[in-house]
Amino acid sequence: MLQAAASLDTDVLVVGGGPAGLAAAIAARRKGLRVRVVDAARPPIDKACGEGLMPDALQALADLGVRIPEGAGSVFRGIRFIGDDVTVEADFPSRHALAVRRTVLHQILVDAAAEAGVELCWETPAGDLGHASARWIIGADGYSSRVRTWAGLERWRRRKERYGFRAHYRIEPWSEYVEVYWHADFQIYVAPVATDEVLVALLCRDPHLRIDEALESFPQLQERLGDAPRSTTERGGISATRKLWVVTQGSVALIGDASGSVDAITGEGLGLAFRQALALADALAEGNLDLYEAAHQKLTRRPRFFAELLLLLDGRPELQDRALRYLGRHPQVFRFLLAWHVGEIRNPIRSFN
Ligand SMILES: Cc1cc2nc3c(=O)[nH]c(=O)nc-3n(C[C@H](O)[C@H](O)[C@H](O)COP(=O)(O)OP(=O)(O)OC[C@H]3O[C@@H](n4cnc5c(N)ncnc54)[C@H](O)[C@@H]3O)c2cc1C
Q: Structural domains in the chain?
């Protein structure tokens, strides 16, 4: 049993050393706290992910003091939506985004945590911790968080689940945009992750659909990929938009996917986790998790709004067609929405006028 106790092994025990847990650990170390991270797996840990770091995620990483070395990822300048016979794109207003292989990002975060003085314990499942004690316990153990259950926080306010699959192809990227191909019932997106590699991700409600079958609906994309070999095997996961009533309990706080999530179509899961990490460290330094509870609510509002907005188009072909055509005729609206989505517009009503 984990304990938050008076005689302490460490100040902060982080369960889960994925992106959220490592970001939380780095942020807490920067506040001078002793931090231990335990994870059941060994780095670099891979996971089904679209691997896009939006401009606001890169800003949060910079605020955490984490630098992505040049060449570790591939820059993209905006988002392109591709529908039946309409294509519309928008650039990020002032900053670029990066697609970084998940394993590369994980290793960068592991190195940054080690350098910050975080104690890292790999191949250590939470159940094996015996009577580890800490002042604060952070549940960063992902979608099926055991800490969440253990802390009695398993009370969902909203829950919508889809499935996500991804594979990489050895081919030179053809676009500086992340391309989102809209089908009535699913989306495929393509991101440049290296000079000779692209990621293809599928988001759908059907757990049996796979990338090859979905690609048949987009012959132009199929043709572009041609016979490029896959450089990874297909990997799947849950893409969920979920909200908990509360994310703290006593001295326990949840972060990242353990604390709820937004659909992967937003490309915001990682950025959200990094911003939560910064807010959590502020709260730990003040000794007051209520501050984190409030910050968490606020931080999830914008990505959740965009998740709900984009999901309105999923499974509604007519609405989807009308929306894409509207954006095609009014590209400034797409630019505005993208700027708002990545946090470059704080007051959307005033900014739109
Ligand atoms: C298909 C798909 C595409 C996505 N695309 C994007 C995108 O383009 N951009 C973006 O920002 N986000 C994207 N996301 C979301 C993003 O991947 C997640 O939000 C992010 O991985 C959450 O990180 P995390 O650290 O909270 O969880 P995880 O990455 O799941 O890490 C949890 C960690 O906890 C460990 N763990 C679990 N249980 C235990 C235990 N009992 N004891 C010890 N350790 C344990 C695991 O080993 C793991 O390392 C996508 C998600 C999916 C499914």
A: 3-352 (3.50.50.60)
